[in-house]
Amino acid sequence: MNGPLVSIVIPYYIHEEYLEAAVLSVLAQTYTNVEVVVVFDPGKSRPAEEVLKAIPQDRLRIITQAEKSTAPNARNVGVKNSTGELILPMDADDLLDPSYLEKTVSVLLQDPSLGGVYTAVKMFGDRDEVYSPEWSVSGIVTGTGGALICLLYRRTVFDAIGGYNPRWRVGDDSDFFLKACRKGYKFKQLKEPLYLYRRHPASTTARSPQRDLMEMAIYLVQDHPDVMMEHLEEVIRYKEERYCKLEEEYSHLHSEFHKLLEQYNQLEAGLQQSGDPKLLSRLKERVKRMISPNLPQ
């Protein structure tokens, strides 16, 4: 297929069991003018050359860094060592639908005003669902727009904003998107779920989401204070709505708990009157396991 070269940049530090599948999903694209750049940070996993030894090398480039760095730094290294006109960063444990590049590249080329294109996301593994983020400056600063996952963009966008900020441990793609928007770039979403996000215990979204959100909020205030001030009213309104919703959920759970507790107390009183201590002991043990399901059986 004719068209600009697309460089797929994959930081690799963990997830060696998924890396080969990620690369193969790129090489299986119906849009074939691609190169894969894997940036390997040594440490926890086998070297990329060993994991990918069965992969054809003509469209694969492996860069091994001297020491462990951050994911945004690895993306910067990968982009700077790539040659494509278009860039698509992806994680080592994810996959692309075979038509991902064909459809996103087509949309991007049809509209020169676009800086990039993203799609809906199909989650698989521990959770199966379709996730359709709506990216916007307002959505990022308020937290209502959803996580940024896999953006195909022009190299000129990367050059204009200077790449990813290595200081952002989480949310560096949000920082990238904000800077691009402030430079005047526009982005478009395809509703079809063409990016396949693997959910598993070691995936990014399986970590403490509240801690990551708090850390990202600090980065936003420090690096984009003017944007935060511009959308402060929206942020406060969203947080207030979120607080009220959580308060309602807590009140409901609190009420239900006390209903169950009352039923338990009534049942316990009845068993005590029956004079069967073994039955009462089994009841208490059963309730303990229901409340703490991770206790040894």
- The best one-word shape is globular
Helix/strand structural class: alpha/beta
> Got a strand count?
9
What's the CATH architecture of the largest domain?
Answer: Alpha-Beta Complex
Task: Quickly name the level 1 CATH class of the largest domain.
Answer: Alpha Beta
Residue windows where pLDDT falls under 50 for at least 5 positions? none
Biggest sheet character: 9 strands, mixed
Say what oligomer this is.
Answer: single chain
> Helical amount among residues, as a percent range?
40-55%
CATH topology descriptor of the largest domain: Spore Coat Polysaccharide Biosynthesis Protein SpsA, Chain A
Structural domain count: 2
Approximately how much beta-strand content do the residues carry? 15-25%
Write a short abstract of this structure:
By secondary structure, the protein is α/β, with parallel strands linked by helices.
Helix-strand layout with pairing:
Blueprint: E1 6-12, H1 16-27, E2 34-40, H2 48-51, E3 60-64, H3 71-80, E4 86-89, E5 95-96, H4 100-110, E6 114-125, E7 129-131, H5 137-142, E8 151-154, H6 155-161, H7 172-182, E9 186-199, H8 209-223, H9 225-230, H10 232-274, H11 277-291
Parallel strand pairs: 1-2, 1-4, 2-3, 6-9
Antiparallel strand pairs: 4-8, 5-9, 6-7, 6-8
